[in-house]
Amino acid sequence: PPSERNGPAYFLDCVRSGRAPSGLVGVGVALAAQQILEAGRMAGGAPCWFNAANEVAVASFLEGGIGWRQIYDVVAASMAAYPGADLASVDQVVELDREARVVARKVVGSLG
């Protein structure tokens, strides 16, 4: 049914199987799902870096600074700059989050 094609399980299944989801929103969500899975596979602070970059990108989208599809571009460029990090303390997590947000803001600025 169409309603099942809007749920997260559908998009995750598409990403895992290599199928293209239907609709523009579906494509954007599938691209984001790929990024999430990749960040999860990476060691250390990659999920933290991804989350911070994604939050900056989404905030910029909601403020009208970037388009829907550019959320993916911001996160992808930010993840490309991920320096790799083994996190041993909360302070290190906070610092990595801060650094990722700086990078993501620079990427957003380069798109405008």
Using brief descriptors, characterize the structure shown:
112 residues, mainly alpha, flat
Low-confidence segments: none
- Arithmetic mean pLDDT: 81
Strand content: under 5%
Report the span from N to C terminus: 39 Å
Structural class: mainly alpha
Largest β sheet strand count, sense and barrel closure: none
Overall helicity = 55-70%
The helix/strand order is HHHHH
Number of helices: 5
Please tell me how large the radius of gyration is: 15 Å
Number of strands: 0
Would you mind describing this structure in some detail?
By secondary structure, this protein is mainly alpha-helical. Helix content is 70%, strand content 0%. The chain has helices spanning 8-17, 24-41, 46-62, 70-80, 90-111. Helix 1 crosses helix 2 and helix 3 crosses helix 5. The longest helix is centred in the C-terminal third of the chain and has 22 residues, at 90-111. The radius of gyration is 15 Å and the shape is flat.
Q: SSE layout and pairings?
A:
Layout: H1 8-17, H2 24-41, H3 46-62, H4 70-80, H5 90-111
Briefly say what this structure is.
Helix content is 70%, strand content 0%. The protein has 112 residues and is an all-alpha fold.
